[in-house]
Structure formats: structure tokens, C-alpha cells
Write a structure and sequence with these properties.
Elements (H helix, E strand, L loop, with lengths): L8 E4 L13 E2 L15 H8 L7 E2 L16 H5 L8 H9 L4 E4 L2 H7 L8 E5 L4 H9 L3 E5 L4 H4 L5 E5 L11 H12 L4 E5 L20 E6 L12 E4 L2 H11 L6 H12 L1 H26 L3 E4 L2 E5 L3 H10 L2 E2 L1 E3 L4 E5 L4 H11 L13
Parallel strand pairs: 1-2, 3-13, 5-6, 5-7, 7-8, 8-9
Antiparallel strand pairs: 1-6, 4-10, 9-10, 11-12, 12-15, 14-15
Helix pairs in contact: 3-9, 4-5
């Protein structure tokens, strides 16, 4: 088998017919797509595997803020009545995101699954490594999926129809400026293409967002309430795009996409600007603390966002196992071998993490490749 250059893009598709760009940038050895994708937060599975009671685990396997926005009592009418679109949620979201055309959905995951159904089979490039539900959704809907490292996007932009970028990326934490994103969008839109930007982890650094840019043909931004606000359980997110695309989404979704309680809680959280400002500063400080702990105890370079830090090492699987045996759950990525750590939620949890990390054997220093 031919040795694959890790800096080259990889392709998955429903139809495995060979295809490369004229300069052979793309190689047809993509990752297989299974039905269900692996995610963080699978604590029940860890309980069964390691035999440790649920209340004895420290779950750092997600990038969800452990300091959840303080949820108020939900009015009884939110439970009694069908959800209504004139309850102020859309207006609160428009103010928070600085835009005028958006649609609430049951988490950005709902949008990820529907997006591929809005296009004829296309050539879709997705940042790799990245959130695996993107590639699963596009590949399972008959599109040809190109896995592309962040530093190779520019070289393939002319050969694709759709580009899916996660900004900042999960798990690699790569960041993309609005200038380069809009440049890619301009190239794609000229031939009817799309730029999809998943901003699930951007709330802590809102200056990176392009959500407030006026609606443009083929520009689609996905936002999530779950990560920054620590409200993953209410399943609320937004699609920000041109009215035509939003109308097609709405037609597929049907009525009452969000429950009444979810709409109420989300509206209140989006309007709480004081909490948001305080939390951005707090998360930044905590992420730096996590970075320092990982680098000091593992001897590895850590890279991340305000909600997680990630290390790359050939021992990622071994470390994941050692930590799990001590009741600390992390998120393991196999290709490349990465280990992602979310933020502890209390000082006791910080101390527990550091004490366990001190006992892990340190490898030679490994840095991210440029």
C-alpha cells in the first residue's frame, strides 16, 4: 500500500470511484463512516467498563462549561402550552449574535444532519481532525467527503463545492480569521458553493465569529447554546444564513423544533450579558491553568480553547486508559492520536486531576506539527 502523506487530504464517499485533483492533492483513502459516531460524555459506558460507580468519576471528556448558567424556575405555562415563535427567543438571539436572519434548532447537531439534504451530491471538504458528525452526515447522504488538514484548505478550495470549517476547531483548536473565511466563501459562492462554519466553541471568543456579517448566498453559520452556557441538555442551537436556506430548513424541521422550557431558558441565558462577560474571563483563566497543568505534568505541548485543552502523543491511548482507571474520563481521538481535557468544575476536581497526572509516566516532549 502506498504511504500516505499526513498533510494531504483524504476522501470518503458513497461512490468509491477514483478521483484526484489535477495536481494529485487528494488521495482516496478516507476514514470509514459508521452509523453512530463516538463522542465525549459517555459516562455510563465508562461506569460499565471500569466498574467504578458514577458518582466517583471526574468527567473531563466534553468541552462543556462545568459552570452552568444559573437556570431559573421555569414557568408552568412553558410545560402546559405548545411552544410559540413570538416569545422573544429569536429577538434575544438576534441581539446576542448581531444578526437578522436565524432559525432556532434542537442543537447545532440537528442542522448538521439536515444540511446535506439541501444539496445535490457535491464534493465536500471538512477539516480533519474535527467534529465527526459533519463527515458522517455528508457522506451518508451521497456526497464525496474530503478530509483536509487546516493548513491544506487553500490548496483544494478550487476543487470542492462545500467547505465545512469548525472555528475554533475541535479538537485541534485551529482558528480562522474572518478575512480567510470570507475569501473562501467568495470563491465557493461564485460557482454556487457553500461555506459552513461551525462556531460551537466560539462564544468565549466572540471577536472570531462571523455570525454578525450580513446574510450572503451560500454562507451558513451554526451556533450552539450547549458549550459556553453549559446547557447541552436543553438541545438548543441556531442556524444563521440567508432566508432561502432558512426556509428550506424550516420546511424540513416542521413545527415546535424546540420545547417550551428550552425556549424559555435559552432566551434568558442569551440576554444575561453580565454573566457572559464574567464567564469569558473566568474560562480564559481556567483554560490557561489547565494548559499549564498538562504541560508541567506530561511534558507535552497543550493547545486548546477556553473550554478545553488537547495534547498530541503516541501514548494518548495509554494515558486515556490510565486516567480512566483512576476515575478520570477524557476524550481520546485516534487519528492523529490526541487526548482532550475539559475543565474541572471545582477546586477539589482540579487537585484530583493534578494528583493523578503526577503519577503518569512522562514521554519525550512532543509538539504539534506545523
Amino acid at each position: 500500500m502506498t504511504q500516505q502523506n499526513p498533510d494531504q487530504a483524504k476522501v470518503s464517499q458513497a461512490d468509491p470511484a477514483p478521483h484526484t485533483t489535477p495536481d494529485h492533492t487528494l488521495i482516496l483513502t478516507g476514514k470509514p463512516v459508521s452509523g453512530l459516531q463516538h463522542h465525549g460524555g459517555r459516562l455510563g459506558e465508562a461506569v460499565k467498563k471500569y466498574g467504578r460507580p458514577r458518582d466517583q468519576w471526574l468527567d473531563l471528556s466534553t468541552g462543556i462549561n462545568p459552570q452552568t448558567w444559573p437556570v431559573p424556575a421555569v414557568p408552568i405555562e412553558c410545560w402546559q402550552r405548545l411552544p410559540e415563535n413570538d416569545d422573544g427567543l429569536e429577538q434575544a438571539a438576534e441581539t446576542y449574535y448581531g444578526c437578522k436572519t436565524l432559525l432556532p434548532v434542537a442543537g447545532s447537531q440537528a442542522a448538521i444532519q439536515l444540511l446535506p439534504k439541501l444539496r445535490q451530491p457535491s464534493r465536500v471538504a471538512i477539516i480533519d481532525p474535527g467534529y465527526n458528525e459533519h463527515r458522517a452526515a455528508w457522506a451518508s447522504n451521497g456526497h464525496q467527503v474530503v478530509d483536509v488538514p487546516a493548513n491544506r484548505i487553500e490548496s483544494i478550495i478550487k476543487e470542492i463545492d462545500v467547505l465545512v470549517v469548525i472555528n475554533p476547531n475541535n479538537p485541534g483548536a485551529e482558528r480562522f480569521s474572518s478575512t480567510e473565511l470570507l475569501r473562501w466563501h467568495a470563491q465557493l459562492s461564485k460557482r454556487g458553493g457553500w461555506l459552513v462554519v461551525d462556531e460551537a466553541f466560539i462564544d468565549s471568543t466572540p471577536d472570531l465569529s462571523i455570525a454578525s456579517i450580513p446574510a450572503r448566498n451560500g454562507l451558513i453559520v451554526l451556533r450552539s447554546i450547549g458549550k459556553f452556557f453549559g446547557l447541552a441538555g436543553i438541545r438548543c442551537g441556531f442556524v444563521i444564513s440567508e432566508p432561502t436556506i432558512l426556509a428550506r430548513f424550516e420546511q424540513l424541521l416542521g413545527p415546535w423544533t424546540l420545547s417550551g422550557p428550552s425556549r424559555y431558558i435559552c432566551r434568558q441565558a442569551l440576554a444575561d450579558s453580565d454573566w457572559q462577560a464574567q464567564m469569558r474571563g473566568e474560562l480564559s483563566r481556567q483554560s490557561l491553568r489547565l494548559k499549564n497543568i498538562l504541560e508541567q505534568n506530561l511534558g507535552l505541548e497543550a493547545r486548546g480553547t477556553p473550554l478545553f485543552q488537547c495534547v498530541q502523543t503516541s501514548k494518548a491511548g495509554e494515558y486515556h486508559q490510565q486516567l480512566a482507571q483512576q476515575g478520570i474520563l477524557t476524550r481520546l481521538f485516534p487519528d492523529p492520536q490526541l487526548l482532550r481535557f475539559g475543565l474541572p468544575g471545582s477546586e477539589d476536581q482540579w487537585q484530583r486531576l493534578e494528583s493523578v497526572l503526577c503519577c503518569i509516566r512522562k514521554p519525550a516532549v512532543t509538539s504539534y506539527s506545523s
